[in-house]
User: What shape does this take?
Amino acid sequence: MWVDGKMDSAGIVTLRLRARPEADLLGYRILRANSPDHEFSVRLESFNDNNSYGTNDTLYSDTVDIATLTKNVYYRVTALDKNHNESAMSTILAVPRPDVIAPVPPVIRDVRMTDTSVILGIIPSTSEDAAWHIVYRRVGEGAALDSVARLGSRDTLYVDSDVSKSTAYWYSMRAVDSSGLRSDLSPSVVGRPYETDTRPEVQNLTARYDATRRVVVLQWDYPARSEDFWFVVYRAGTGTQLRQFARLTSADRTYTDNAPLQREDGTAVYAVRVVARSGSESKLEPKVQVTIGR
Assistant: This one.
């Protein structure tokens, strides 16, 4: 009969057997398996005609590998007398392995932004013993990571509403298992809540067809701004919708379209939109029309 069994951090198993009253006890046969449903194999035999077990419990030691995901190791034992009569099998003793394997980190599969939040889609840790997830965030590229939320082990969504518009936030996560072991950090992702304010439209937009060079020259005015932005030029032919086809820097105030239309006779419509790095943009106004021809 078992008293108990324990395993230390080095994989040393200590097994304690209840003292037996039989005077002719020869010893024990100890068997081991990695699952209670597997076949048990003999691990240790302690037979000695001169053994005197007396009234004390008997201790045995075993060594197992702890770097495995199998949580327990299982033992059974039989007793033999000096005539080699063997008892029935004991009950199964499950000895827990110490948890030395960190959990698998969760994965941030996608990032969505609104003007008031950053939303993380999460693939949870695949480790069975993962107990919870920690969300980390840093504000700005050179800042330190701070923990901002603790999620359940099966949570698949996190909404960060403590954000400011046009500010970049980097996120990462890790899993913590029931033993307190922590996974590596997941790869970081960035989210930037966008602004809903529109930007002013360009002013004094003109389009002039240069018949000599067969190009259309656009010009406009726009005041300097402290934010990072650029211009996007849109064009449409006769009976078609406006489509963007050129991106210019914030310093540009003119653009030359070297291929205004596939044919030289017709009408082209142009517009220039202002797009800020924050995600805000101007209306697609004003629109100008120019006749293409000789």
